[in-house]
Model the fold of this input.
Amino acid sequence: MELKLDHVTHTYQPGSPFQATAIRDISLTVGDGDFTALIGPTGSGKSTLAQHLNGLLKPTEGTVTLDGEDIHQKGFDRRRVRQQVGLVFQYPETQLFEETVKKDIAFGPRNLGLSEDEIAERVRTAMEQVGLDFENEGDKSPFELSGGKMRRCAIAGVIAMRPKVLVLDEPTAGLDPEAREDLMEMVADLHRKGTAIVMVTHSMDDAAKYCSRTVVLEKGRVVMDGAPREVFSRAEELTRMGLDVPQVLRLGMLLREKGIPFPEDAIREEEAEKALLELFGNRSGPGLQDRKGGRGHA
Done:
């Protein structure tokens, strides 16, 4: 499967006094096996771009194609792109509405006209994939769940449609560190099982740890596109845009300033752990995870 944006521009309220162009001349391809992070300053167009990937927004200029077909051309079945490209908004738990978890997750598959047996199988599988217990939590109201589990329930409703691409807009926003890590491991597992992921995120650590590609937007344009290690090597440019860098990279900068030869290309926790052990040996005392006092703190 190939999802492609070709020179896409989107302008809100064109021709009005409130006209505003959110993204400009963006070309981007998402294929099988991709795990792409979309990062950029607030207002750079990340969410607008994400909403073009499943046809929720129509380009003012340019085209969006799925396997070579323009998804906005006359006669194209828009349900096809919604089935193959699932979009999870920021704070998706606010869109839960059914009286039980199982019914909420079943809503999308039921609209596909599937049999009740197929719907039940999809609901059970989706719950397993997001770490919800079908037997113990399926008949609960989704509003009885914790915040993290409510979000998992909302994501399960999209997963139950069995999309080939899952687009996530700030999936960990507002979650505590433990719930954030659990959710990201769940997303990583979906990717390992074959779902392509596109993730809008402000977490440079998540982009470095989980993603194979990082796309940076600024003022509605793609200004960087490459492997995380390549993108984060341009730390000064990212900082100038108002973006952060992974904590491991920041730690390395501080150590090198003190004359400690920490590798310049280390961006992930396991790389920092290995480098520190090589530099200082396996001395007694707290490990890297304990010293951080939680995820994302060097």
Notes: The mean pLDDT is 92. The chain has 13 helices and ten strands. The first strand starts at residue 2 and ends at 12. The CA atoms of residues 122 and 160 lie 5 Å apart.
